[in-house]
Protein backbone atom coordinates (compact mmCIF):
# COMPACT_ATOMS: atom_id res chain seq x y z
CA UNK A 1 0.00 0.00 0.00
CA UNK A 2 1.52 3.29 -1.09
CA UNK A 3 1.61 6.09 1.48
CA UNK A 4 -0.31 9.20 0.39
CA UNK A 5 2.39 11.79 1.04
CA UNK A 6 0.39 14.69 -0.39
CA UNK A 7 -2.41 14.07 2.11
CA UNK A 8 0.06 14.61 4.97
CA UNK A 9 1.85 17.70 3.64
CA UNK A 10 1.50 20.62 6.01
CA UNK A 11 0.25 23.05 3.37
CA UNK A 12 -2.44 20.67 2.12
CA UNK A 13 -3.55 19.98 5.69
CA UNK A 14 -3.90 23.71 6.42
CA UNK A 15 -5.97 24.12 3.25
CA UNK A 16 -8.20 21.17 4.19
CA UNK A 17 -8.73 22.60 7.69
CA UNK A 18 -9.71 25.97 6.22
CA UNK A 19 -6.85 27.98 7.76
CA UNK A 20 -5.46 29.05 4.36
CA UNK A 21 -6.78 29.08 0.81
CA UNK A 22 -5.40 27.18 -2.17
CA UNK A 23 -4.28 30.49 -3.68
CA UNK A 24 -2.40 31.40 -0.50
CA UNK A 25 -0.65 28.02 -0.51
CA UNK A 26 0.44 28.56 -4.13
CA UNK A 27 1.86 31.97 -3.24
CA UNK A 28 3.69 30.51 -0.21
CA UNK A 29 5.20 27.68 -2.29
CA UNK A 30 6.42 30.19 -4.88
CA UNK A 31 7.91 32.37 -2.13
CA UNK A 32 9.60 29.33 -0.54
CA UNK A 33 11.12 28.39 -3.89
CA UNK A 34 12.45 31.92 -4.31
CA UNK A 35 13.95 31.97 -0.80
CA UNK A 36 15.61 28.57 -1.26
CA UNK A 37 17.07 29.33 -4.68
CA UNK A 38 20.49 30.19 -3.20
CA UNK A 39 20.38 28.04 -0.04
CA UNK A 40 22.55 25.00 0.48
CA UNK A 41 20.14 22.05 0.97
CA UNK A 42 22.50 20.74 3.68
CA UNK A 43 22.13 23.96 5.69
CA UNK A 44 19.57 22.66 8.18
CA UNK A 45 19.02 25.99 9.94
CA UNK A 46 18.38 27.84 6.66
CA UNK A 47 16.02 25.11 5.48
CA UNK A 48 14.01 25.32 8.72
CA UNK A 49 13.70 29.10 8.45
CA UNK A 50 12.29 28.68 4.94
CA UNK A 51 9.94 25.79 5.77
CA UNK A 52 6.44 26.20 4.37
CA UNK A 53 5.06 26.89 7.86
CA UNK A 54 7.53 29.72 8.50
CA UNK A 55 6.87 31.18 5.04
CA UNK A 56 3.12 31.17 5.72
CA UNK A 57 3.74 33.05 8.99
CA UNK A 58 6.01 35.53 7.22
CA UNK A 59 3.30 36.21 4.64
CA UNK A 60 0.76 36.74 7.43
CA UNK A 61 -1.52 33.86 6.44
CA UNK A 62 -1.24 32.02 9.77
CA UNK A 63 0.16 32.66 13.24
CA UNK A 64 2.45 30.49 15.39
CA UNK A 65 -0.48 28.92 17.26
CA UNK A 66 -2.08 27.85 13.99
CA UNK A 67 1.25 26.42 12.82
CA UNK A 68 1.46 24.32 15.99
CA UNK A 69 -2.03 23.00 15.36
CA UNK A 70 -1.16 22.18 11.76
CA UNK A 71 1.96 20.29 12.80
CA UNK A 72 -0.12 18.36 15.33
CA UNK A 73 -2.62 17.35 12.65
CA UNK A 74 0.26 16.40 10.36
CA UNK A 75 1.83 14.16 12.99
CA UNK A 76 -1.48 12.39 13.65
CA UNK A 77 -2.16 11.83 9.95
CA UNK A 78 1.34 10.51 9.27
CA UNK A 79 1.06 8.07 12.17
CA UNK A 80 -2.28 6.86 10.78
CA UNK A 81 -0.91 6.55 7.23
CA UNK A 82 2.16 4.70 8.47
CA UNK A 83 0.01 2.29 10.47
CA UNK A 84 -2.19 1.61 7.47
CA UNK A 85 0.88 0.92 5.34
CA UNK A 86 2.18 -1.57 7.92
CA UNK A 87 -1.05 -3.45 8.44
CA UNK A 88 -2.54 -3.36 4.94
CA UNK A 89 -1.01 -6.76 3.98
CA UNK A 90 -2.46 -8.33 7.15
CA UNK A 91 -5.88 -6.85 6.47
CA UNK A 92 -5.88 -8.22 2.93
CA UNK A 93 -5.28 -11.74 4.31
CA UNK A 94 -8.42 -11.78 6.45
CA UNK A 95 -10.62 -14.86 6.76
CA UNK A 96 -13.45 -15.62 4.41
CA UNK A 97 -15.91 -14.62 7.11
CA UNK A 98 -14.23 -11.25 7.54
CA UNK A 99 -14.21 -10.70 3.79
CA UNK A 100 -17.90 -11.51 3.66
CA UNK A 101 -18.71 -8.97 6.38
CA UNK A 102 -16.75 -6.27 4.58
CA UNK A 103 -18.56 -6.95 1.32
CA UNK A 104 -21.94 -6.90 3.03
CA UNK A 105 -21.38 -3.66 4.90
CA UNK A 106 -19.99 -1.71 1.96
CA UNK A 107 -22.26 -3.21 -0.73
CA UNK A 108 -20.90 -4.11 -4.15
CA UNK A 109 -20.66 -0.46 -5.22
CA UNK A 110 -17.36 1.30 -5.71
CA UNK A 111 -16.73 4.67 -4.06
CA UNK A 112 -16.71 7.63 -6.46
CA UNK A 113 -15.71 11.24 -5.85
CA UNK A 114 -17.24 13.90 -8.04
CA UNK A 115 -17.61 17.66 -8.28
CA UNK A 116 -20.74 19.78 -7.83
CA UNK A 117 -23.54 20.10 -8.77
CA UNK A 118 -24.43 16.52 -7.85
CA UNK A 119 -27.83 14.79 -7.95
CA UNK A 120 -28.10 11.68 -5.78
CA UNK A 121 -30.93 9.27 -6.47
CA UNK A 122 -32.52 8.27 -3.16
CA UNK A 123 -32.44 4.57 -4.02
CA UNK A 124 -28.67 4.69 -4.73
CA UNK A 125 -27.77 4.26 -1.07
CA UNK A 126 -24.70 2.30 0.01
CA UNK A 127 -26.55 0.91 3.02
CA UNK A 128 -29.90 1.53 4.71
CA UNK A 129 -32.21 0.51 7.52
CA UNK A 130 -35.99 0.17 7.41
CA UNK A 131 -36.87 1.76 4.05
CA UNK A 132 -38.29 0.30 0.85
CA UNK A 133 -38.21 1.33 -2.80
CA UNK A 134 -41.07 1.54 -5.29
CA UNK A 135 -41.69 2.64 -8.87
CA UNK A 136 -42.16 6.42 -9.08
CA UNK A 137 -44.48 8.46 -11.29
CA UNK A 138 -42.18 11.48 -11.02
CA UNK A 139 -40.54 12.95 -14.12
CA UNK A 140 -37.75 10.63 -15.29
CA UNK A 141 -39.28 7.50 -13.81
CA UNK A 142 -37.19 4.95 -11.94
CA UNK A 143 -37.56 4.34 -8.21
CA UNK A 144 -38.24 6.42 -5.13
CA UNK A 145 -37.67 5.53 -1.50
CA UNK A 146 -40.52 5.39 1.01
CA UNK A 147 -42.06 3.54 3.96
CA UNK A 148 -40.09 5.76 6.36
CA UNK A 149 -40.46 5.36 10.11
CA UNK A 150 -38.66 7.12 12.96
CA UNK A 151 -35.00 6.05 13.07
CA UNK A 152 -34.90 4.67 9.52
CA UNK A 153 -31.80 5.78 7.65
CA UNK A 154 -29.89 5.75 4.38
CA UNK A 155 -26.14 6.17 3.92
CA UNK A 156 -24.54 7.37 0.68
CA UNK A 157 -20.96 6.78 1.83
CA UNK A 158 -19.86 5.55 -1.61
CA UNK A 159 -21.04 8.75 -3.30
CA UNK A 160 -18.42 11.32 -2.35
CA UNK A 161 -18.23 14.89 -3.58
CA UNK A 162 -15.77 17.75 -3.20
CA UNK A 163 -16.93 20.97 -1.54
CA UNK A 164 -14.55 23.51 -3.14
CA UNK A 165 -14.79 26.06 -0.33
CA UNK A 166 -16.12 26.53 3.18
CA UNK A 167 -19.44 28.27 2.66
CA UNK A 168 -23.11 27.92 1.73
CA UNK A 169 -24.55 25.12 -0.38
CA UNK A 170 -28.07 24.65 -1.73
CA UNK A 171 -29.62 21.24 -1.19
CA UNK A 172 -32.83 20.49 -3.11
CA UNK A 173 -34.99 17.53 -2.02
CA UNK A 174 -37.61 15.97 -4.32
CA UNK A 175 -40.37 14.87 -1.94
CA UNK A 176 -44.03 13.79 -1.91
CA UNK A 177 -46.49 13.31 0.97
CA UNK A 178 -50.23 12.91 1.36
CA UNK A 179 -50.59 14.85 4.60
CA UNK A 180 -47.09 16.08 5.52
CA UNK A 181 -45.77 16.15 9.07
CA UNK A 182 -42.70 14.03 8.43
CA UNK A 183 -39.13 15.19 8.94
CA UNK A 184 -35.57 13.95 8.43
CA UNK A 185 -32.02 15.05 9.19
CA UNK A 186 -29.24 15.53 6.64
CA UNK A 187 -25.82 14.59 8.00
CA UNK A 188 -22.44 13.18 7.10
CA UNK A 189 -22.66 9.49 6.25
CA UNK A 190 -20.67 8.67 9.39
CA UNK A 191 -22.92 11.04 11.43
CA UNK A 192 -19.93 13.14 12.48
CA UNK A 193 -21.87 16.32 11.61
CA UNK A 194 -25.56 17.15 11.16
CA UNK A 195 -26.32 19.92 8.67
CA UNK A 196 -30.07 20.41 8.56
CA UNK A 197 -33.55 19.19 9.53
CA UNK A 198 -36.11 19.12 6.71
CA UNK A 199 -39.85 19.28 7.39
CA UNK A 200 -41.99 17.61 4.72
CA UNK A 201 -45.04 19.60 3.57
CA UNK A 202 -48.35 18.18 2.40
CA UNK A 203 -47.94 17.87 -1.38
CA UNK A 204 -51.40 16.36 -1.99
CA UNK A 205 -50.36 12.80 -2.71
CA UNK A 206 -47.63 10.20 -2.33
CA UNK A 207 -46.74 10.69 -6.01
CA UNK A 208 -47.33 14.47 -6.15
CA UNK A 209 -43.76 15.73 -6.26
CA UNK A 210 -42.32 19.11 -5.26
CA UNK A 211 -38.86 20.55 -4.62
CA UNK A 212 -37.88 21.66 -1.10
CA UNK A 213 -34.79 23.91 -1.15
CA UNK A 214 -32.54 24.46 1.87
CA UNK A 215 -29.21 26.19 2.51
CA UNK A 216 -26.54 24.42 4.57
CA UNK A 217 -22.97 25.26 5.50
CA UNK A 218 -20.23 22.81 4.54
CA UNK A 219 -16.51 22.88 5.14
CA UNK A 220 -14.16 22.66 2.17
CA UNK A 221 -13.15 19.07 1.45
CA UNK A 222 -14.64 15.66 0.66
CA UNK A 223 -18.12 14.79 1.92
CA UNK A 224 -20.56 11.89 1.76
CA UNK A 225 -24.04 12.29 3.13
CA UNK A 226 -26.73 10.37 4.96
CA UNK A 227 -30.40 10.84 5.84
CA UNK A 228 -32.17 9.75 9.04
CA UNK A 229 -35.94 9.95 9.61
CA UNK A 230 -36.93 11.95 12.70
CA UNK A 231 -40.74 11.80 12.43
CA UNK A 232 -42.99 9.79 10.11
CA UNK A 233 -46.00 12.15 10.05
CA UNK A 234 -48.48 11.03 7.41
CA UNK A 235 -45.60 9.32 5.62
CA UNK A 236 -43.48 10.63 2.78
CA UNK A 237 -41.41 9.60 -0.23
CA UNK A 238 -38.01 10.84 -1.44
CA UNK A 239 -36.98 10.59 -5.10
CA UNK A 240 -33.61 12.40 -5.14
CA UNK A 241 -31.64 15.25 -3.62
CA UNK A 242 -29.21 17.64 -5.26
CA UNK A 243 -26.20 19.54 -3.83
CA UNK A 244 -25.02 22.80 -5.45
CA UNK A 245 -22.52 25.48 -4.44
CA UNK A 246 -23.96 28.81 -3.33
CA UNK A 247 -20.70 30.40 -2.17
CA UNK A 248 -18.98 32.16 0.70
CA UNK A 249 -21.34 33.21 3.48
CA UNK A 250 -21.61 36.91 4.30
CA UNK A 251 -19.80 38.85 5.50
CA UNK A 252 -17.14 37.65 3.06
CA UNK A 253 -13.66 39.17 2.98
CA UNK A 254 -11.60 38.45 -0.15
CA UNK A 255 -7.88 39.13 -0.04
CA UNK A 256 -6.82 41.08 -3.13
CA UNK A 257 -3.90 38.74 -3.83
CA UNK A 258 -6.18 35.67 -3.92
CA UNK A 259 -7.16 36.34 -7.55
CA UNK A 260 -7.82 33.50 -9.98
CA UNK A 261 -6.47 35.49 -12.92
CA UNK A 262 -5.03 38.97 -13.45
CA UNK A 263 -3.38 41.25 -15.96
CA UNK A 264 -0.68 43.81 -15.27
CA UNK A 265 -0.54 43.94 -11.48
CA UNK A 266 2.03 42.81 -8.90
CA UNK A 267 1.89 41.79 -5.24
CA UNK A 268 4.08 42.98 -2.35
CA UNK A 269 4.26 42.49 1.44
CA UNK A 270 1.90 44.85 3.26
CA UNK A 271 2.38 46.62 6.58
CA UNK A 272 -1.40 46.81 7.06
CA UNK A 273 -2.97 45.14 10.09
CA UNK A 274 -2.83 41.37 9.64
CA UNK A 275 0.19 41.38 7.34
CA UNK A 276 0.34 39.24 4.20
CA UNK A 277 0.36 40.73 0.71
CA UNK A 278 -1.39 43.57 -1.05
CA UNK A 279 -1.90 44.16 -4.78
CA UNK A 280 -0.43 47.20 -6.50
CA UNK A 281 1.38 48.60 -9.56
CA UNK A 282 -1.98 49.33 -11.21
CA UNK A 283 -2.19 50.98 -14.62
CA UNK A 284 -5.25 51.75 -16.68
CA UNK A 285 -7.12 48.57 -17.77
CA UNK A 286 -5.17 46.25 -15.42
CA UNK A 287 -7.62 43.78 -13.92
CA UNK A 288 -8.15 41.06 -11.32
CA UNK A 289 -10.67 38.20 -11.49
CA UNK A 290 -11.89 36.21 -8.45
CA UNK A 291 -13.73 33.32 -10.11
CA UNK A 292 -12.58 30.89 -7.39
CA UNK A 293 -14.14 33.05 -4.65
CA UNK A 294 -17.84 32.41 -5.23
CA UNK A 295 -19.98 34.60 -2.94
CA UNK A 296 -23.52 33.70 -1.85
CA UNK A 297 -25.88 36.68 -1.93
CA UNK A 298 -28.87 35.43 0.06
CA UNK A 299 -31.50 37.91 -1.14
CA UNK A 300 -31.77 40.69 -3.71
CA UNK A 301 -31.05 44.03 -2.07
CA UNK A 302 -28.39 46.57 -1.15
CA UNK A 303 -25.00 45.46 0.15
CA UNK A 304 -22.00 47.32 1.52
CA UNK A 305 -18.64 46.75 -0.15
CA UNK A 306 -15.63 47.91 1.85
CA UNK A 307 -12.32 48.31 0.00
CA UNK A 308 -9.03 48.49 1.92
CA UNK A 309 -6.89 50.91 -0.09
CA UNK A 310 -3.75 53.04 0.16
CA UNK A 311 -2.34 55.78 -2.08
CA UNK A 312 0.33 58.43 -1.63
CA UNK A 313 -1.47 61.12 -3.66
CA UNK A 314 -4.83 59.66 -4.69
CA UNK A 315 -6.43 60.19 -8.09
CA UNK A 316 -6.72 56.53 -9.00
CA UNK A 317 -9.99 54.70 -9.59
CA UNK A 318 -11.27 51.23 -10.38
CA UNK A 319 -14.50 49.47 -11.33
CA UNK A 320 -16.11 46.68 -9.29
CA UNK A 321 -17.98 44.22 -11.50
CA UNK A 322 -18.91 40.62 -12.17
CA UNK A 323 -15.82 38.61 -13.10
CA UNK A 324 -17.18 37.96 -16.59
CA UNK A 325 -17.81 41.68 -17.14
CA UNK A 326 -21.57 41.19 -17.50
CA UNK A 327 -22.45 43.78 -14.83
CA UNK A 328 -20.56 46.75 -13.41
CA UNK A 329 -21.75 47.73 -9.95
CA UNK A 330 -19.76 50.79 -8.96
CA UNK A 331 -16.72 52.96 -9.59
CA UNK A 332 -14.39 53.49 -6.65
CA UNK A 333 -12.25 56.65 -6.40
CA UNK A 334 -9.11 56.05 -4.34
CA UNK A 335 -8.45 58.96 -1.96
CA UNK A 336 -5.10 60.36 -0.90
CA UNK A 337 -4.16 58.39 2.23
CA UNK A 338 -0.66 59.84 2.70
CA UNK A 339 1.37 56.80 1.73
CA UNK A 340 1.44 53.57 -0.23
CA UNK A 341 1.09 51.68 3.07
CA UNK A 342 -1.24 54.12 4.84
CA UNK A 343 -4.49 52.18 4.75
CA UNK A 344 -8.09 53.38 4.89
CA UNK A 345 -11.50 51.82 4.25
CA UNK A 346 -13.61 53.11 1.36
CA UNK A 347 -17.24 52.00 1.57
CA UNK A 348 -19.71 51.81 -1.31
CA UNK A 349 -23.29 50.53 -1.44
CA UNK A 350 -24.40 48.41 -4.40
CA UNK A 351 -27.48 46.43 -5.40
CA UNK A 352 -26.89 42.71 -5.86
CA UNK A 353 -29.30 39.99 -6.98
CA UNK A 354 -29.82 36.83 -4.97
CA UNK A 355 -27.57 33.94 -6.01
CA UNK A 356 -23.93 33.05 -6.54
CA UNK A 357 -21.57 35.80 -7.68
CA UNK A 358 -17.96 35.99 -8.85
CA UNK A 359 -16.44 39.45 -8.76
CA UNK A 360 -13.67 41.30 -10.53
CA UNK A 361 -11.83 44.64 -10.41
CA UNK A 362 -10.54 46.74 -13.34
CA UNK A 363 -8.31 49.82 -12.97
CA UNK A 364 -9.77 52.90 -14.67
CA UNK A 365 -7.12 55.48 -13.73
CA UNK A 366 -3.70 55.15 -12.11
CA UNK A 367 -3.50 58.58 -10.44
CA UNK A 368 -0.24 60.40 -9.72
CA UNK A 369 1.58 57.63 -7.85
CA UNK A 370 -0.78 54.70 -8.20
CA UNK A 371 -2.70 52.85 -5.49
CA UNK A 372 -2.75 49.57 -3.58
CA UNK A 373 -5.61 47.25 -2.55
CA UNK A 374 -5.32 44.86 0.40
CA UNK A 375 -8.81 43.31 0.49
CA UNK A 376 -12.47 43.93 -0.13
CA UNK A 377 -15.41 42.84 1.98
CA UNK A 378 -19.07 42.18 1.08
CA UNK A 379 -21.72 42.37 3.79
CA UNK A 380 -25.42 43.16 4.10
CA UNK A 381 -26.61 46.66 4.89
CA UNK A 382 -28.93 46.98 7.87
CA UNK A 383 -31.99 46.83 5.59
CA UNK A 384 -30.80 43.68 3.83
CA UNK A 385 -29.52 41.94 6.97
CA UNK A 386 -32.90 41.14 8.54
CA UNK A 387 -34.40 39.71 5.35
CA UNK A 388 -31.28 37.69 4.62
CA UNK A 389 -31.35 36.26 8.16
CA UNK A 390 -34.96 35.15 7.82
CA UNK A 391 -34.44 33.54 4.41
CA UNK A 392 -31.92 31.02 5.76
CA UNK A 393 -32.68 31.05 9.46
CA UNK A 394 -32.29 27.31 9.84
CA UNK A 395 -28.66 27.31 8.72
CA UNK A 396 -27.61 30.61 10.27
CA UNK A 397 -29.18 30.13 13.70
CA UNK A 398 -27.46 26.79 14.20
CA UNK A 399 -24.05 28.05 13.11
CA UNK A 400 -23.73 31.59 14.43
CA UNK A 401 -21.04 32.10 17.06
CA UNK A 402 -21.90 33.87 20.25
CA UNK A 403 -20.13 37.10 21.00
CA UNK A 404 -17.00 37.12 23.15
CA UNK A 405 -17.35 38.32 26.71
CA UNK A 406 -15.56 41.55 27.51
CA UNK A 407 -13.39 41.58 30.61
CA UNK A 408 -11.76 44.50 32.39
CA UNK A 409 -8.09 44.58 33.36
CA UNK A 410 -5.58 47.32 34.09
CA UNK A 411 -5.62 50.14 31.53
CA UNK A 412 -2.78 51.10 29.22
CA UNK A 413 -4.76 53.99 27.73
CA UNK A 414 -7.34 56.36 29.05
CA UNK A 415 -10.86 54.93 29.12
CA UNK A 416 -14.31 56.16 30.06
CA UNK A 417 -15.74 55.43 33.47
CA UNK A 418 -18.55 53.30 32.03
CA UNK A 419 -17.99 49.66 33.00
CA UNK A 420 -17.40 47.00 30.35
CA UNK A 421 -20.53 44.89 30.24
CA UNK A 422 -20.61 41.15 29.73
CA UNK A 423 -21.50 40.67 26.07
CA UNK A 424 -23.97 37.84 25.77
CA UNK A 425 -25.39 36.29 22.63
CA UNK A 426 -28.77 38.01 22.77
CA UNK A 427 -29.47 41.19 20.88
CA UNK A 428 -30.86 42.88 23.97
CA UNK A 429 -27.59 42.39 25.81
CA UNK A 430 -25.68 43.97 22.98
CA UNK A 431 -28.10 46.87 22.74
CA UNK A 432 -27.55 47.96 26.33
CA UNK A 433 -23.89 48.83 25.75
CA UNK A 434 -23.69 50.06 22.15
CA UNK A 435 -23.26 53.71 23.15
CA UNK A 436 -20.34 53.16 25.54
CA UNK A 437 -17.26 55.09 24.38
CA UNK A 438 -13.55 55.04 25.14
CA UNK A 439 -11.45 58.22 25.25
CA UNK A 440 -8.13 57.76 23.45
CA UNK A 441 -5.32 60.18 24.32
CA UNK A 442 -2.25 58.09 23.44
CA UNK A 443 -3.12 56.93 19.92
CA UNK A 444 -3.32 53.34 21.18
CA UNK A 445 -6.21 51.15 22.34
CA UNK A 446 -5.73 47.84 24.16
CA UNK A 447 -8.53 45.26 24.43
CA UNK A 448 -9.00 42.01 26.31
CA UNK A 449 -11.96 39.60 26.25
CA UNK A 450 -13.03 36.05 27.10
CA UNK A 451 -13.63 33.53 24.32
CA UNK A 452 -17.24 32.39 23.80
CA UNK A 453 -18.11 28.81 24.78
CA UNK A 454 -21.58 28.57 23.23
CA UNK A 455 -23.32 29.61 20.04
CA UNK A 456 -26.17 32.10 19.94
CA UNK A 457 -28.73 29.27 19.97
CA UNK A 458 -27.18 27.66 23.07
CA UNK A 459 -25.19 24.92 21.31
CA UNK A 460 -21.72 24.23 22.65
CA UNK A 461 -19.02 26.01 20.64
CA UNK A 462 -15.97 23.76 20.56
CA UNK A 463 -12.60 25.50 20.56
CA UNK A 464 -11.59 23.87 17.28
CA UNK A 465 -14.66 25.40 15.58
CA UNK A 466 -13.90 28.96 16.68
CA UNK A 467 -12.29 30.91 13.86
CA UNK A 468 -11.29 34.21 15.50
CA UNK A 469 -12.45 37.78 16.06
CA UNK A 470 -13.03 41.04 14.24
CA UNK A 471 -12.94 44.54 15.74
CA UNK A 472 -14.58 47.63 14.32
CA UNK A 473 -14.46 51.23 15.54
CA UNK A 474 -15.62 54.76 14.81
CA UNK A 475 -15.37 58.19 16.38
CA UNK A 476 -18.36 58.95 18.57
CA UNK A 477 -20.91 60.72 16.37
CA UNK A 478 -19.67 59.15 13.12
CA UNK A 479 -21.93 56.80 11.18
CA UNK A 480 -19.34 54.57 9.50
CA UNK A 481 -17.11 51.98 11.13
CA UNK A 482 -13.55 51.04 10.24
CA UNK A 483 -13.15 47.25 10.26
CA UNK A 484 -9.91 45.71 11.49
CA UNK A 485 -8.85 42.34 10.13
CA UNK A 486 -6.88 41.50 13.22
CA UNK A 487 -5.42 38.18 12.13
CA UNK A 488 -5.69 37.02 15.74
CA UNK A 489 -6.52 33.38 16.34
CA UNK A 490 -9.24 31.82 18.48
CA UNK A 491 -6.90 31.35 21.46
CA UNK A 492 -5.69 34.95 21.45
CA UNK A 493 -7.87 37.12 23.69
CA UNK A 494 -6.20 40.52 23.47
CA UNK A 495 -5.32 43.02 20.76
CA UNK A 496 -3.62 46.42 20.50
CA UNK A 497 -4.86 48.92 17.93
CA UNK A 498 -2.33 51.62 17.02
CA UNK A 499 -2.34 54.83 15.02
CA UNK A 500 -5.59 56.30 16.36
CA UNK A 501 -6.18 60.04 16.47
CA UNK A 502 -7.04 61.38 19.92
CA UNK A 503 -10.77 61.39 20.57
CA UNK A 504 -13.78 59.52 21.91
CA UNK A 505 -14.35 56.19 20.13
CA UNK A 506 -16.93 53.44 19.97
CA UNK A 507 -15.29 50.00 19.72
CA UNK A 508 -17.12 46.74 18.96
CA UNK A 509 -16.03 43.12 18.60
CA UNK A 510 -17.52 39.99 16.99
CA UNK A 511 -16.52 36.33 17.03
CA UNK A 512 -16.75 34.06 13.99
CA UNK A 513 -16.52 30.31 13.50
CA UNK A 514 -14.57 28.23 10.97
CA UNK A 515 -17.56 28.32 8.60
CA UNK A 516 -17.44 32.12 8.50
CA UNK A 517 -20.61 32.71 10.55
CA UNK A 518 -20.39 35.83 12.72
CA UNK A 519 -21.85 36.71 16.08
CA UNK A 520 -23.44 40.10 16.64
CA UNK A 521 -20.98 42.96 17.15
CA UNK A 522 -21.00 44.00 20.82
CA UNK A 523 -19.41 46.92 22.61
CA UNK A 524 -15.89 46.54 24.00
CA UNK A 525 -13.91 49.16 25.93
CA UNK A 526 -10.30 50.12 25.49
CA UNK A 527 -8.40 49.32 28.66
Give a structural overview.
By secondary structure, this protein is α+β, with helices and mostly antiparallel strands. Helices cover 18% and strands 39% of the residues. The chain has nine helices and 35 strands. A five-stranded antiparallel β-sheet has the order 3-6-13-9-10, with no helix packed on it. It has a five-stranded antiparallel β-sheet with strand order 16-19-26-22-23, with no helix packed on it. Strands 29, 31, 32, 34 and 35 form a five-stranded antiparallel β-sheet that branches. Strand 4 (132-135) and strand 5 form a beta hairpin. The longest helix has 29 residues, at 64-92. It is globular. The chain starts with 9 loop residues before the first helix and ends with a strand. The model is unreliable at 1-6, 79-109, 386-400 and 406-435 (pLDDT under 50).
Give the number of helices. Answer: 9
What topology, given as strand order, has the largest sheet? 3-6-13-9-10
Cα-to-Cα separation, first versus last residue: 58 Å
Shape: globular
How helix-rich are the residues, as a percent range? 10-25%
Structural class: alpha+beta
- Round the mean pLDDT to the nearest integer and report it: 79
- What is the rounded Rg? 26 Å
Q: Please state roughly what percent of the residues sit in beta strands, choosing from under 5%, 5-15%, 15-25%, 25-35%, 35-45% or over 45%.
A: 35-45%
Annotation, overall tally of beta strands: 35
What's the story with the biggest beta sheet? 5 strands, antiparallel
Amino acid sequence: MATNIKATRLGDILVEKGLISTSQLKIAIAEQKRLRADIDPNDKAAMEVTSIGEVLIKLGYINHQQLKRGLGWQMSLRRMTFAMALFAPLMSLGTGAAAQVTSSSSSSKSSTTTSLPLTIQAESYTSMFGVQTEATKDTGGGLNVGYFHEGDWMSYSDTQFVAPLTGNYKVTYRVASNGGGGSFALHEADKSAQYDVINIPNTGGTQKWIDVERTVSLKAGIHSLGITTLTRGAGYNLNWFKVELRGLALPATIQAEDYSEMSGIQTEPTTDTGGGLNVGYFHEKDWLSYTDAVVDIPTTGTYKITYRVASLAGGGSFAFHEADGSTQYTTVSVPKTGGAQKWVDVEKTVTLTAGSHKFGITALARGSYGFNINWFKIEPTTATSSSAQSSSAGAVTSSTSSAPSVVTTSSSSSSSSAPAASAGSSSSAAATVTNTTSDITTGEAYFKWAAPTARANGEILNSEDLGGYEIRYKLAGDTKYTYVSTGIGPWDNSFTLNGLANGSYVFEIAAFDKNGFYSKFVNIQAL
